[in-house]
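step=predict obj=Amidohydrolase-related domain-containing protein n=275
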Amino acid sequence: MIIDAHVHLSTYTGKGNFLEGCLDVLLGEMKQNGIDYAIVIPDNIEDDPKIAHLENTLELIKKTNKLFALGSPQIIQRGSSEVDKYRRLLKGGAIKGLKLFSGHDPYYPNDDRCLSYYELLQELDYPVVIHTGDHSSNPNITDPLKYNDPKYIVEIAKKYPKLKVIITHYYWPKIEYCYEVTKDVPNIYFEIAGLADDEVIKASGGIEKIKEVLKKTIKDRYNKVIFGTDWPLCDFDGKSGFAYHIELVKSLGLSPDIEKMIFSQNAISVYNIKR
Ligand SMILES: [Zn+2]
């Protein structure tokens, strides 16, 4: 079984004309690539018809039992005022955790406005996923790495030792640095979306470098690395981002048991997914 813990519903890369069409393309490509379930991350931008935000994500995924969703608090627009809303959604089972977009939006993971979300997640035992790396959808942010440096994420993980803190995109291109600063923090997890993208590979020192860092992360923390892709991004040369990410994991030479943990078991336990 394969669970992809990081997809979006977005028509920006030509996958469907409308979000409903994009949902069909997603389910079709999942089937083709042997992906059984996926977690849809709603975007932090709410007024764009080309990408699903929280409300339309929750509406769209009702049509299938293959998809789960996260929530995405609007820290800049609404600060910590959405805690009650997310408490209801988490308790009701509509979402499986929260994603914070530090670097897409101009705030740091240790911003005071984020803290009540961490407290909520720690209490209910759901994870936070934190965007990292050198990409921002916000044209006013020229240095996203300034905002999502894992040193701030370590600070949060230590402040909330029972909170499951998931770093997505491995703070590319500084993957070695990210490995080093996080390696002794037991409640930090990694979700690997984007690491098979050609731009990310080139900027991060090549595919062998990415494989080396992933291998040593899995050696230290085999129960803390989670499969993800960032679909519909990361397609190139006519091949799906799903296929590239599956190939990346398979190329690591893992034992069948560990491979199974990366592809599905770790996501099931971290996101409390019940089948
Ligand atoms: Zn993403």
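step=describe
Residues 6, 8, 41, 193, 230 surround zinc ion (CB under 6 Å).
step=end
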